[in-house]
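Hey team,

Filing this mostly as a record. A colleague (T.K.) asked me to run one chain through the structure pipeline before their review meeting, and I want the input and output archived in the tracker in case anyone asks later how it was produced. No errors, nothing strange. Just documentation.

Input sequence:
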Amino acid sequence: MSAIQIHTESGGSGGPVLVLLHGIGGNAAVWNPMLALVERRWPGRWVAVDLRGHGRSAHAPPYGYAVFAADVANALGSADDELVLLGHSMGGVVAMALATGWFGVGVRHVFAFGVKIGWTADEVARMHKLATGPARVFDNRAEAAERYLRVSGLSGLVEPDAPEALAGVAETDGGFRLAADQGIYAAVGPAVGEFHRAANAPVRLAAGEADPMVTLAEMQALDPQAALLPGLGHNCHVEAPERVWELFERSLAG
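Output structure:
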């Protein structure tokens, strides 16, 4: 598979390299609330990625966890530094895929939070149907930004005119649409547990206590050390970046 245009943002220098991987429908801008912490407390370089079909990266099916992982590996280049992966929701699954060693990068540690582990057949079918539908076009950027915030679970956490909201919107013929390709929803379905078991690096799992996507019992079936963040929801890295970062640091130390 030939490489496509993948948008990345980065900072810092040296190793180890911290890679930030967003969830389905999102983009690298969702990490903005955490970047001040990253710049202050991460000792090496950091890279935030817009996965294929998301944000400012190319719309280029097919979409899937392994495809996303291959793109990230290509985008990172041939750096010899080991990677530490911080993934939210679907980004956590992509991180586990990278940790298998199948994509030619060395991974030292994965911290994945808000990952939906159990997918029913009906849920997968609904997502795959959504992937075949037309992208909705809005009359103005503000309406599109409001829609992006709703579908990404960021309503009430991010202002519609904030950079994190506007990064989820793109101009198109006749108006504005969400920046993510509708086809990305076809990515869901493969068993998350299989990626976790195949990982060749420690994988720590966590979630907000009020995250409707996953339960503590589901996480502990894969990672007995999995933890909940009290009072937080699915986008806990936006709600309380300091608390997520502190748990991430503890997972590294452990």
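Quick notes for T.K.: The chain has a mean pLDDT of 95. The radius of gyration is 17 Å.
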